[in-house]
Amino acid sequence: MSTSVGVNVLRWSALGFGVFYGAYHQLSLSAADKAKAAQKDWEHKESLIRQAKQQWAKDHPSEQPKSSGGIDIAKANPKDPNADLNTILGITDN
Question: Looking at the keywords, is Ion transport present (predicted)?
Fold first, then answer.
């Protein structure tokens, strides 16, 4: 029982395609798993940071920034990129 050259080429081509598709599919699955694991790790770190901030705020209530003389200390720092110019200059809306 002899097979023709065309059938052998087709078989080998299908085998080669299957090997390359399998490798590509395995790489895409492992990349998706790595991305999911990285996202889960990031969310875990965020939750730990959030818990630590809450615990610190509970342990140190007197160290929270307070306003003095109607000017908020956080907004009165001229080197702060989020500073309010009106607060720094003492301009009110009255």
Answer: yes
